[in-house]
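User: I've been trying to design a sequence by hand for this structure and keep getting stuck. Would you show me what you'd pick, starting by listing the structure so we're on the same page?

Assistant: Good idea, let's start from the same input. This is the structure you sent:
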């Protein structure tokens, strides 16, 4: 008779939670993680891009713009 731990279908490779089943789910989860990372990385703006938009919309004046640009390291480089 078969014991309760072995379904009789080849042991570890073909059992209910066999190696192929685990590998399948690892690949599915890894794929979802990669897709989420790819989508979340799209459209990221640099600090200078954000600063330029704030200046263009009039949220900050030229003095503040130049000061902030120097603060983020995009100002006059010598």
């Amino acid at each position: 008779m078969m014991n309760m731990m072995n379904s009789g279908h080849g042991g570890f490779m073909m059992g209910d939670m066999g190696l192929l089943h685990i590998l399948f789910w690892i690949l599915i989860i890894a794929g979802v993680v990669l897709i989420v990372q790819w989508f979340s990385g799209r459209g990221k703006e640099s600090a200078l891009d954000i600063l330029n938009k704030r200046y263009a919309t009039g949220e900050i004046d030229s003095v503040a713009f130049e000061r902030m640009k120097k603060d983020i390291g995009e100002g006059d480089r010598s």
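That's my pick for every position. To get oriented when you compare it with your attempt: The longest helix spans residues 19-41. The two ends are 83 Å apart (CA to CA).
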